[in-house]
Please model this.
Amino acid sequence: MGLWARFKRVFFASTGAALDKIENPELVLQQTIRDMRDRVPELNNSVAQVMATERLLIKNHENLEKQVVDLDSKIKASVKMGRDDIATAYIGQLQQAQVDMQRTGGQLEQASLSSKQALKARDNYVLNMKKRTAEAMQLISSAKQAKLQEQLAQTMETFNIGDDASTFNEMREKIDRRVAAAEAKLQLGSSSVDAQMQDIEREAMDIQLQDKLLEYKQQMGLLGAGSSSSSGKQIASGSEAKEDEYPDQVIVNESDMNRSN
Model:
């Protein structure tokens, strides 16, 4: 194989590969459909011309038939009147009209056949066009679906679910740590010494207010004389009751002291 032939082969192979890459099947099919539809008006015009020729021949044949009938009547009238010369002239015209009518009849048969063939060809083309259009639309739909699947495949190739899972886990751990820290701070704040001291101060303030209220009531004579003594007796009785509740403990403590001595 010569160098030039090899060069041409490489050139055509490279060109074909480049065209395959840039060639869009959807655009090619759509353009093919448009081209097929654009040919329909041209076919209709061709069929119309064939049919017009047929109709013109039909008209000429009808006129020739009328002319033959008219000449035949004139010949008979001339013969009847004894005008053989005129009858002879009409006979010549009649013969020419019959020849023309015969020739026109043959042309009319050919035109009628051509018209039928043209109509049939046009109808077949329209049917074929509709079939090809349906196939092209289906191919275009398949091409779109294939393109979508290719894009999805490319996306799935670049999509690494492990990385995102680790990111979600990392963010979840950070959020859990923040929630735990916030809960610990809240619990620490509610159980701190400052909060307990505030409770004690609040209780002391309530006691002082109650004592102040009793003092005002005593000054205003709203409390009876036995109120203070009764309260003292209640305190004393309460202390005696506590001693009575634990007599065994007192005895036990005294025995322990004697043993130690």
In short: The radius of gyration is 63 Å. The domain at 3-158 is CATH 1.10.287 (Helix Hairpins).
